[in-house]
Amino acid sequence: xxxxxxxxxxxxxxxxKAEKAEAHTGYGCTSCKGSWLPxxxxxxxxxxxxxxxxKFFSTLSNSDHETTNYKCPVNCGALSAITDxxxxxxxxxxSGVWFESKALKSMLNNYQTKRESLAVAxxxxxxxxxxxxxGALFK
Length: 139
Description:
- By secondary structure, the protein is α+β, with helices and mostly antiparallel strands.
- It contains four helices and seven strands.
- It has a seven-stranded antiparallel sheet.
- The chain is globular.
């Protein structure tokens, strides 16, 4: 989806680099330390955390927000700042989310890590789950 698109940081205009952000794949700014997670990457959090993406996006769209001067890194519109979530902005067009430095970590700390106990007989199923997760990240 983002191949060939040079995404820029909405804060300082630096080119965003694909990287891990709090153990989740996203795009980070090396200067301001902010993170951009496209919608599909936000959706993938449900595989590692007790997180409901639909509920998260519903909360974002129903919260008080104001249009910012920040442009979406995918260049599809202006980001909306959420007044109830310090350091989090989202794009109403593509549903990507911008997290200022440490805001992603703060948000993820609100959700418990999924703990699945695996029996030895479940190991083949566990590896299939890993491939499903990787597939979800690259949709």
